[in-house]
Amino acid sequence: MVITQISLRGLRLKGELDALNFTALATLTSIQLSHNRLTGRIPPSIVSLRELRFLLLRRNQIRGSLSPALASLTQLRYLMLQQNQLSGEIPRQIVQLEGLVALNLSANHLSGPIPSELGYLKKLLSYTTNYLALIAELAYTENVTGMCDVYSFGVLVLELLMGFHPGDLLSSIYLTTNKNGVCLKDLLDSRLVLPDAETAREMHGVLSVAFQCLEPNPLRRPTARRASDQLSAGTKTCEDQHVDYLHVVFTIPAQ
């Protein structure tokens, strides 16, 4: 039997995470152990999982530092380690994970600077979605509350995609009396290469959250916690391979 996934989310599991030996599970592509009571450190043997794409350990009691060896997980796309007890600095080697779609390290005890090399990743420059989840966590401190203003996050997402501040776009939308629509392709910086279908789907999911944050009526916006949770979950979007996400229209309510 070939094991490709471990999914034990929210079962209140207890134990030391570093007691696990992943060496014999080289075929794993997904580890989902979020919302448990796991302690210990991320085991060194995890670097043997060269096909791993999802490492989801949110809301446990995992401690220790982030190993630079995580950079050897070149297939990794989702690294969600928020709400643990991790400490130390974010290793610079993390920028070698060029396929990352979502990175969340919030609500830990990390220190030091965010690697400035993140801005030099090829996909980061082209598609921006690789670090939107990281930016979201910076907007929300460890004490996330519903009182945080998420509007600025929505503006930031648009600015990253468009290559300039979206003030004129938002003004033209909010000054009209009808509902307005805009598609992903029209928002992307025209100087950049269009993303492939999978990346466009992922970007669509992030934009869906961003536009909720840009709701003119503050009472209709999601709380910072909910927006952060949606991004951490990878933003649930339709995975229909026949959907052209570049041209799917976002409906933006006017004031």
Description:
This protein is of the alpha/beta class and 255 residues long. 25% of the residues lie in helices and 15% in strands. The chain contains seven helices and twelve strands. The protein has helices at 122-127, 132-139, 151-162, 167-174, 184-187, 197-213, 224-232, and strands spanning 5-7, 14-16, 30-32, 37-39, 54-56, 63-64, 78-80, 85-89, 102-104, 109-111, 180-183, 249-252. The strands form four sheets. It has a five-stranded parallel beta sheet with strand order 1-3-5-7-9. It has a three-stranded parallel beta sheet with strand order 6-8-10, with no helix packed on it. It starts with a strand and ends with a strand. Mean pLDDT is 78; it is low at 122-148.
What structural class do you assign from the helix and strand content? alpha/beta
Distance between the termini: 57 Å
**Helix proportion range:** 25-40%
Give the ordered list of helices and strands: EEEEEEEEEEHHHHEHHHE
Mean pLDDT: 78
Rg over C-alpha atoms, rounded to the nearest angstrom:
19 Å
Enumerate how many helices there are, as a single number. Answer: 7
Strand content: 15-25%
Catalogue the unreliable spans. 122-148
Strand order of the largest sheet: 1-3-5-7-9
Q: The biggest beta sheet, please? A: 5 strands, parallel
Shape: globular
Number of strands: 12
What is the compact description of this entry?
This protein has 255 residues and is an alpha/beta fold.
